[in-house]
Write a structure and sequence with these properties.
Blueprint: H1 20-89, H2 98-111, E1 115-122, E2 128-131, E3 138-139, H3 148-155, E4 162-163, E5 167-169, E6 174-185, E7 188-198, H4 200-209, E8 215-221, E9 225-228, H5 235-244, E10 248-249, H6 256-259, E11 267-268, E12 279-285, E13 288-297, E14 305-312, H7 313-363, H8 379-399, H9 404-412, E15 421-432, H10 435-439, H11 444-464, E16 468-473, E17 476-481, H12 490-514, E18 522-538, E19 541-547, H13 549-560, E20 570-574, H14 576-582, E21 587-591, E22 605-609
Parallel strand pairs: 18-20
Antiparallel strand pairs: 1-2, 1-7, 2-3, 4-6, 5-6, 6-7, 8-9, 8-14, 9-10, 11-12, 12-13, 13-14, 15-17, 15-18, 16-17, 18-19, 20-22, 21-22
Helix pairs in contact: 1-4, 1-7, 7-8, 11-12, 12-14
Length: about 625
């Protein structure tokens, strides 16, 4: 029959909360994110807003330059026609005098070089034509002027200059933008004066706006014809257009991006919607993206003019990536900062973890395993470490005066003192024979050393079998099994503990005598009985002990060992109750007689036997 270990006390509840190795980095990272996210967000949205604002301003400025150049190109001719219309109406110019018309034409051509020709179409009479290449007025056949009746019908309703649809002029060999003005003399409609404004100069101007091939401006007549383009400002482009003898289409100006302007499924440019005077979209042309920025001009009706430019997507993409770079750089910075915070958090938590490990060692009463707590860069942690180390040293000192099993039970009960109760336990008393004679004439330090060396071997043997050392009585001690932790096999454990003590004393004495030193025999008394186990004392000084007749019986059995037969270095006298409770498996030697004042259940007495080498034959099944 083997000795079962005592049942463990209540286990401490699992602590709640997060580990500091997680909590501290999470808190640090959270604080960093809380501080940096608004800054990065504001910086990103501010940069995005600035980019969109600057992009809109640049786009509007570029389109405005084209618009203003167009107005500066055609405006003087329109103003000249308005002036001559008023002069004829006032009688300052004779509408029927061709010489005056010639003088006017020369002056108009000098003031507005962009005008390539004039035409005078009276209601009655032959039309007259004047071109820059021919400085004289020539009659024009009326049949060469189409839609004359419609022109007169339209002119009668006008009060000032009126534009016409752009067209190709066979006479000057370039696209022209016509403008007409009605002529009235004394309120009577007499005819119209028209001017042809050449657009070659517009193409040459747009060529100056080209920026390293990235931005190409254009002026469209409707959606499918090109009125002005940088290619048409070049000799090759204008020569090809003269060969065609008409306005060029979008795919005829050596500009594949412009040709793809009205491709299906265009993509919106978000920052242009509703917040600017220009329109735009982007799309893929081959493997590259391109954007078209344009404005429809309604000032030249019925001509439908569209002015604008297109640019490669990489130009705007670079600016967008600069804005996104703020967000990316902020994210990378936050990630790096978070990694640093995690590393720093873990470094800061190491001293706290070491302190927690040391606290767990104290909680388990493994006071010898409490590590040395190193220095920290945090002053308060250093103070806590030093205070904890002093506390651990104090506990180690206190543990030498208290039964460890009792302290473990107090810790398991969260510091509450165990209640006093009647309990069946097995009590052991021991004493050294001849110790008084041994100490006579010897220094106190020598005798104390001898006693401490012996008890340092006897004490662990008791605790190893679940015994509690109640107190040391001079050169003896009192111990018991079955308290404070209940143990149904306390008698058997006490017998094993007594035999272990005998083994240690045998070995200790043998070593001393081999060294030429004196040694004392030991007597042990064992008794099983019911006693009151609990606290004795007052609030400031309490002793956990056992009180009752069974304690006295165990003490008298130890004293009776003087008269008992001697076997080896230790005589163990056990009562009948102890032998009965310990069950079989031990070697017992009956003893005749015994103390007269012991309880009835203590007799007959027996000697508990065991070999000096520590082998307990009873555990091997020997009778």
């Amino acid at each position: 029959m083997m000795l079962e270990p005592a049942s463990p006390g209540p286990q401490p509840a699992k602590p709640s909360g997060w580990p500091i190795t997680r909590l501290l980095p999470v808190v640090l990272v959270g604080l960093i994110f809380l501080a940096m996210l608004p800054v990065i967000g504001i910086a990103y949205f501010a940069a995005q807003s600035n980019y969109e604002t600057s992009a809109r301003q640049i786009n509007e400025l570029t389109v405005d330059m084209i618009d203003q150049r167009l107005q500066a190109h055609v405006g003087p001719v329109r103003d000249q026609l308005a002036y001559i219309s008023e002069a004829v109406a006032k009688g300052e110019i004779d509408f029927d005098d061709h010489e005056q018309w010639r003088a006017f034409a020369l002056g108009a051509l000098a003031a507005a070089p962009q005008a390539v020709g004039f035409v005078v179409i009276p209601v009655n009479g032959e039309p007259m034509r004047f071109t820059r290449t021919d400085r004289s007025m020539h009659p024009e056949r009326r049949e060469n002027l189409p839609f004359t009746d419609q022109l007169f019908a339209q002119a009668r309703t006008l009060s000032g200059p009126q534009w016409a649809e752009p067209q190709w002029s066979l006479i000057v060999g370039e696209p022209i933008l016509p403008v007409i003005v009605p002529i009235r003399v004394h309120g009577q409609f007499r005819g119209v004066i028209g001017a042809a404004i050449g657009t070659s100069d517009l193409s040459r101007f747009l060529k100056t706006l080209e920026l390293a091939g990235e931005r190409k401006p254009f002026i469209l007549a409707g959606r499918d014809k090109v009125l002005a383009h940088p290619w048409l400002g070049k000799e090759q482009g204008s020569a090809e257009q003269r060969v065609r003898g008409r306005l060029s289409k979008l795919d005829e100006v050596n500009d594949p991006v412009l040709a793809a302007m009205w491709a299906p499924e265009p993509n919106e440019i978000s920052w242009l919607n509703g917040r600017t005077t220009v329109s735009g979209h982007w799309n893929w042309v081959g493997e590259s993206s391109h954007g078209w920025i344009y404005r429809k001009i309604d000032d030249y009706r019925p001509a439908s003019l569209i002015i604008g430019y297109h640019l490669a997507g990489r130009e705007s993409a670079w600016a967008r990536w600069i804005v996104r770079g703020i967000l990316i750089a902020g994210g990378v910075l936050m990630l790096l900062t978070a990694i640093i915070a995690i590393v720093v958090g873990r470094r800061l938590s190491q001293p706290i973890l070491a302190l927690a490990d040391a606290a767990r060692s104290v909680e388990r009463l493994e006071l010898e395993k409490v590590p040395h707590l190193g220095d920290s860069r945090v002053r308060e942690l250093n103070l806590a470490n030093r205070a904890f180390e002093r506390m651990a040293r104090g506990l180690r000192l206190a543990a030498t005066y208290l039964p460890r099993a009792l302290v473990e039970r107090l810790v398991a009960q969260q510091g509450a003192l165990p209640p006093s109760e009647d309990r069946a336990i097995t009590i052991l008393f021991s004493d050294l024979e001849g110790y008084a004679a041994y100490t006579r004439g010897r220094p106190a330090a020598e005798t104390a050393t001898y006693l401490n060396d012996l008890l340092s071997r006897v004490g662990p043997a008791i605790e190893a079998t679940g015994g509690t050392i109640d107190k040391y009585i001079g050169d003896g001690l009192m111990a018991f099994w079955g308290a404070p932790e209940p143990n149904a096999d306390h008698a058997r454990a006490a017998c094993l503990g007594a035999l272990a003590m005998a083994r240690e004393v045998e070995m200790f004495n043998r070593e001393r005598r081999a060294a030429g030193l004196d040694a004392c025999r030991m007597r042990v008394g064992l008794h099983t009985g019911t006693v009151l186990v609990g606290n004795v004392g007052f609030a400031g000084r309490v002793d956990y002990t056992a009180i009752g007749e069974a304690v006295n019986v165990a003490s008298r059995l130890e004293q009776f060992g003087r008269a008992a037969p001697r076997h080896g270095e230790v005589t163990i006298v056990a009562s009948a109750s102890c032998r009965t409770a310990a069950l079989d498996g031990f070697l017992w030697l009956p003893i005749d007689g015994g103390p007269a004042d012991v309880a009835a259940d203590a007799v007959p007495l027996s000697l508990l036997q065991g070999r000096a080498d520590g082998v307990i034959r009873g555990l091997r099944g020997e009778a």
